[in-house]
Backbone:
């Protein structure tokens, strides 16, 4: 079964600085999709960014970008120019292209210091 | 407004008393799923459904039931809740599969005493 590992339970960053959240996954599948979701204190789950495994180009969404290393099975999230509103729990997620199975990591709690 | 509506938001119940958490989406999504969120474990999939009358077990289906009689609704049923089912529950939906992002409900905080 696929597993998703987020090795950093907590991270902190100074406002306006850059931070990288780590995510690794384990799979034998070739068809899959990767996501980062953000969960602020309101507990709403919000999509941050997504990446198709067949695409070599790293996805970007404004201040958010990923470093997708397929061979290493790594999918880290970089947040540039961190803002106070970025403070949240961040979840890395894997979706199988074969059976739609969805796996989430344990999460990384990001604190942004003013 | 496109949304996933999940009710109730908070629920306190006693062991063994059957309960249902409702989930409805207005986006005509084929795919719907249920997750539980526990500290240090992230979100774990309970059940998912690819379409009407089609449901499959996720990672942690024991103690839960679901049904998908209509495309828009996907209720989660706990026939005999136990304290270890105390958790934060999320319903989610998406178009088809693949890179279609999940749209989540606002969550249900369930406490079983």
Residues:
């Amino acid at each position: 079964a696929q597993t998703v590992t987020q090795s950093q339970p907590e991270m902190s960053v100074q406002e306006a600085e850059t931070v990288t959240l780590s995510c690794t996954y384990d799979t034998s599948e070739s068809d899959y999709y990767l996501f980062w979701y953000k969960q602020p204190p309101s507990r709403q789950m919000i999509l941050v960014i997504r990446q198709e495994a067949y695409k070599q180009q790293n996805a970007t969404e404004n201040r958010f970008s990923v470093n997708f290393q397929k061979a290493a099975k790594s999918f880290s999230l970089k947040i540039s120019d961190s803002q106070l509103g970025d403070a949240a729990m961040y979840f890395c997620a894997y979706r199988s292209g074969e059976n739609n199975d969805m796996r989430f990591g344990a999460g990384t709690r990001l604190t942004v210091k003013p | 407004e496109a949304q996933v509506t999940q009710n109730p938001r908070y629920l306190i119940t006693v062991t063994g008393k059957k309960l249902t958490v409702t989930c409805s989406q207005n986006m005509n999504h084929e795919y719907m799923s249920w997750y539980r969120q526990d500290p240090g474990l992230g979100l774990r999939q309970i059940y998912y459904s690819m379409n009407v009358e089609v449901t499959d077990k996720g990672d942690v289906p024991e103690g839960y039931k679901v049904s998908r009689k209509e495309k828009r609704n996907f209720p989660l049923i706990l026939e005999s809740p136990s304290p270890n089912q105390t958790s934060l529950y999320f319903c989610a939906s998406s178009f088809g599969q693949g890179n279609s992002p999940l749209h989540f409900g606002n969550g249900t905080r369930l406490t079983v005493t």
